[in-house]
């Protein structure tokens, strides 16, 4: 990734060269791995021990959400798509400390995995956790899996799986953060508007259901994620400079510690900010 031009361009290119991961890791090599992972998730059957272990690992989370799986049965279906998201969608990933690389990956949950009104009362978040538990059980013993474990993100209702590919894959220095997201159209957007109530126990001083904007946003963010990534990819195809601009934004945010904490400037947010800015130019 190079910026053509003057002395400043040379300096920028130097910054990008030092900060960005090798395109061989976040380009074709990653794409091939994700394709193989998708095929495995469509055909693999986990052992009972692995399935039970990962199901037990989410019981505390489900209990915190007051979700009883027996009352609302959940059946796993293979993800309809598996793809890199965030900066990795543009093959633009910063090197972490010690050369560690982390790439966010979205597993698209088929709409048929959900029931009507699953946007209510943490049902979506519970089924999302169950889905990832099923994914983990299927990947646990696959030869390409080095390790797989739960990690908490900025939203405790939406944990993700940290998957480290085996060294034999050529991606041994990479950590894939597997996020599960619903297929677009799974939930009506109107029901996730800021003024809507989707936690029936939340009431106002008048005893009436109160708005739950933060809860609604946590579902909406997942629901629209793949559409946003498609828009970013299309814009980058029209404007190749978008990749360099994103890389510089990521370097700037890290240099000023603006990418830290739950309310920091996440890579996903910076991608959307850049897309919005490009649309206004």
UniProtKB/TrEMBL annotation:
<dbReference type="InterPro" id="IPR005554">
    <property type="entry name" value="NOL6/Upt22"/>
</dbReference>
<dbReference type="GO" id="GO:0032040">
    <property type="term" value="C:small-subunit processome"/>
</dbReference>
<dbReference type="GO" id="GO:0006364">
    <property type="term" value="P:rRNA processing"/>
</dbReference>
<dbReference type="GO" id="GO:0032545">
    <property type="term" value="C:CURI complex"/>
</dbReference>
<dbReference type="GO" id="GO:0034456">
    <property type="term" value="C:UTP-C complex"/>
</dbReference>
<keyword id="KW-0539">Nucleus</keyword>
<keyword id="KW-0694">RNA-binding</keyword>
<protein>
    <recommendedName>
        <fullName>Nrap protein domain-containing protein</fullName>
    </recommendedName>
</protein>
<feature type="domain" description="Nrap protein">
    <location>
        <begin position="103"/>
        <end position="230"/>
    </location>
</feature>
<dbReference type="GO" id="GO:0006409">
    <property type="term" value="P:tRNA export from nucleus"/>
</dbReference>
<dbReference type="Pfam" id="PF03813">
    <property type="entry name" value="Nrap"/>
</dbReference>
<comment type="similarity">
    <text>Belongs to the NRAP family.</text>
</comment>
<dbReference type="InterPro" id="IPR035082">
    <property type="entry name" value="Nrap_D1"/>
</dbReference>
<dbReference type="GO" id="GO:0003723">
    <property type="term" value="F:RNA binding"/>
</dbReference>
């Amino acid at each position: 990734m190079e910026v053509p031009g003057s002395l400043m361009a040379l300096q920028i290119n130097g910054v990008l060269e030092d900060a960005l991961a090798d395109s061989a890791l976040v380009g074709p090599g990653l794409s091939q791995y994700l394709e193989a992972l998708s095929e495995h998730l469509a055909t693999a059957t986990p052992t009972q021990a692995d399935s039970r272990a990962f199901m037990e690992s989410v019981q505390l989370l489900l209990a915190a959400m007051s979700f009883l799986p027996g009352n609302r049965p959940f059946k796993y279906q293979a993800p309809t798509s598996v793809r890199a998201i965030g900066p990795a969608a543009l093959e633009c990933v910063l090197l972490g400390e010690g050369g560690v690389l982390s790439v966010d990956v979205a597993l698209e949950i088929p709409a048929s995995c959900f029931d009507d009104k699953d946007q209510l009362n943490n049902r979506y978040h519970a089924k999302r956790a169950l889905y990832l538990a099923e994914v983990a059980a299927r990947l646990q013993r696959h030869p390409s899996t080095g390790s797989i474990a739960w990690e908490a993100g900025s939203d405790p209702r939406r944990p993700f799986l940290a998957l480290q590919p085996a060294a034999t894959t050529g991606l041994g220095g990479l950590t894939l953060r597997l996020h599960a997201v619903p297929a677009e159209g799974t939930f009506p957007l109107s029901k996730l508007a800021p003024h809507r109530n989707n936690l029936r126990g939340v009431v106002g001083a008048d005893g009436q259901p109160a708005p739950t904007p933060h809860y609604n946003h946590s579902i909406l963010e997942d629901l629209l994620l793949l559409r946003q990534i498609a828009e970013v990819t299309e814009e980058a195809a029209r404007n190749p400079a978008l990749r360099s601009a994103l890389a510089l934004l990521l370097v700037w945010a890290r240099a000023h510690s603006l990418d830290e904490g739950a309310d920091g400037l996440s890579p996903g947010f910076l991608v959307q900010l850049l897309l919005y800015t490009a649309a206004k130019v």
